[in-house]
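seq as requested:
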Amino acid sequence: MARAGLTAERLTVAAAELADEAGFDGITVSALARRFGVKDASLYSHVKNLRELRQRVALYTAGEFIDSIAAAVAGRAGKDALIAFADAYRAYALAHPGRYAATQHRVDPELLAGSTVMARTADTTYGMLRAYGLSEPDLTDAVRLLRSTFHGYITLEAEGGFGHPRDVQKSWERGVEALHVLLEHWPANEEKCDG
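struct tokens:
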């Protein structure tokens, strides 16, 4: 009875929920099978192995993550878009630590092939940066800077790494404002183009 209705999609959503409860590394076939009241072997007709299950979770949560950011950024530009993007990024990561950890894992190209997640992520991120007038390779450099800054801050915050009495929210707001100033005054690119 519990076995009826199992699909790769249902297993993926349940595994994402498990990630928030037990951490991304806490996703196991046994733990998931217990949730559905079935034997481990029952899941293998829906997912090949643990690696595929975790990759499905990574892809699913990446879509959920960028959709929440896109909704926050919609209709905004410049500094307002950057703030909305940053705040939505942080809110998702802190509310869903296991799912957020999943978004940091690479997904095999064959699993990505049927998904629009990467395109939505690029559209949302590059669209948010459009007002700053950056072109390649500066655009990629800016995306990497933002991602590493947000990830580092959130990771330290989630692990209680900020011991100073200064309000963490205020530091976040000032940091995002500083990123806006930096993006407005992005240093000139000295790289020479081939050709």
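The mean pLDDT is 93.
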